[in-house]
């Protein structure tokens, strides 16, 4: 067994502890200082789960070749897993984020051009229009839960257009996306596996039908069109095509909703910075980067299993162990950022890891930035008296992401 020296007084990192997910930053700071590559085991002799807290180690581990994404599925499918878990895992095994080279590069190449920086920048005006449409609905009300009325629908509508999904289907797409994130983010139970498995099955059937329909119609230059091109070239199987489209919706939705929700919440709790952004809209780009750093939408990523032993921060990780880089901690690392707990939209030391690093770095990073900038610009323009509502904002239990359950505001 891999000996894990105890770090006196530091305890075990437990993301399920409400004290951690309501305010993780003091906890991260303790682990960065005392046990930056920290092992948790469910029982002695079981494989370890390694949490990586420092920025430099996160970069190192995410660039390591000694890790396998695909191993997760082989392990799940090999064990005595319940049916719903097996089904769920089989579907996810077609997602690029869960694949190793060379399959990963093949899947990513099929849709990469849709998310290239110039293509993403070209979506700025359309994103602004959708933001305005949503705000038209709430401006007369004077108050709203900004998560429900704006932060969730905006990225869903944008990514649906980018993929080529009919707009009228968005309430169903929202339900499927929520079922998936409920499972990935909460304590997993059989009921959650079943619910997410059912959502994934229904989405899968929906996409197969849509692919058939689009094959019979004219070619369109959206992600669906690119996936069909790749099918014709023989670069994707039908399962890969469906998996890729599904991943794009799930990966592009809640992450960006959390950027918007967390960003608004942070601005409202830092009125000086909100005022500064209103006075100097030219700071929007660095403000969005600072929001991504300060309240990172994805806090932790599960990046698969160790394939070959490797050493990190003086610890030896062995085959079968899992590795979890804590991006939210890396982005508050005092070794990289000056006064890391200060929210400062004029910061220039913005080497944050909010979109990950290495070959699996976020494919939609530029689109997310474009959406964030358009969303905050529209909110500042249309809601000049924006302030926190009477009820406090509430964080949701989130094992991987940082997400608000509600964000009551008045304006
Ligand atoms: C603020 C919003 C976003 C954040 C914080 C974010 C964050 C991330 C992170 C941390 C990863 C790496 C995951 C890992 O290594 O396991 C990732 C991967 C990915 N993201 Fe995003 N993301 C955002 C928005 C988007 C959008 C709008 C899309 C558009 C479809 C997208 C598509 C993807 C895809 C396809 C991957 C997998 C890439 C690969 O495996 O090669 N993301 N994202």
From TrEMBL:
Protein name: Cytochrome P450
Native organism: Streptomyces jumonjinensis
Family: Belongs to the cytochrome P450 family.
Keyword field: Heme, Iron, Metal-binding, Monooxygenase, Oxidoreductase
Gene Ontology MF terms: heme binding; iron ion binding; monooxygenase activity; oxidoreductase activity, acting on paired donors, with incorporation or reduction of molecular oxygen
Domain of life of the native organism: Bacteria
């Amino acid at each position: 067994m891999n000996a894990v020296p105890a770090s006196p007084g530091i305890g075990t990192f437990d993301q399920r502890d409400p004290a951690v997910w309501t305010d993780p930053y003091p906890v991260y700071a303790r682990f960065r200082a005392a046990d930056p590559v920290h092992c948790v085991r469910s029982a002695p002799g079981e494989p370890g789960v390694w949490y990586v807290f420092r920025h430099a180690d996160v970069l190192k581990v995410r660039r390591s070749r000694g890790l396998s994404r695909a191993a997760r599925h082989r392990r799940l499918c090999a064990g005595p897993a319940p049916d719903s878990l097996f089904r769920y895992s089989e579907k996810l095994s077609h997602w690029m984020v869960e694949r190793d080279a060379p399959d990963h590069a093949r899947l990513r190449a099929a849709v990469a051009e849709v998310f290239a920086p110039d293509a993403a920048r070209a979506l700025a005006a359309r994103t602004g229009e959708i933001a305005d449409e949503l705000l038209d609905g709430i401006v007369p009300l004077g108050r709203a839960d900004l998560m429900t009325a704006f932060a969730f629908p905006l990225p869903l509508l944008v990514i649906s257009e980018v993929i080529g999904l009919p707009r009228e289907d968005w309430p169903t797409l929202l339900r499927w996306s929520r079922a998936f994130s409920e499972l990935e983010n909460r304590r997993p139970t059989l009921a959650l596996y079943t619910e997410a498995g059912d959502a994934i099955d229904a989405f899968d059937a929906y996409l197969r039908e849509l692919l058939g329909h689009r094959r019979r119609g004219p070619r369109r230059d959206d992600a669906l069109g690119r996936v069909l091109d790749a099918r014709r070239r023989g670069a994707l199987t039908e399962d890969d095509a469906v998996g890729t489209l599904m991943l794009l919706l799930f990966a592009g939705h809640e992450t960006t909703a959390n950027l918007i929700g967390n960003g608004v919440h942070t601005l409202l709790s830092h009125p000086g910075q909100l005022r500064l952004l209103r006075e100097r809209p030219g700071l929007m780009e660095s403000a969005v980067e600072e929001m991504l750093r300060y309240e990172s939408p994805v806090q932790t990523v599960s990046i698969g299993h160790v394939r070959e032993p490797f050493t990190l921060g003086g610890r030896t990780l062995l085959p079968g162990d899992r590795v979890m880089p804590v991006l939210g901690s890396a982005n508050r690392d005092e070794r990289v950022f000056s006064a890391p707990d200060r929210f400062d939209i004029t910061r220039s030391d913005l080497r944050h890891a909010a979109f990950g690093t290495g070959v699996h770095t976020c494919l939609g990073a530029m689109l997310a930035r474009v959406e964030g900038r358009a969303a905050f610009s529209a909110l500042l323009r249309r809601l000049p008296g924006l302030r926190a509502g009477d009820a406090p904002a509430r964080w949701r239990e989130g094992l991987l992401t940082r997400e608000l359950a509600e964000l009551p505001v008045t304006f």
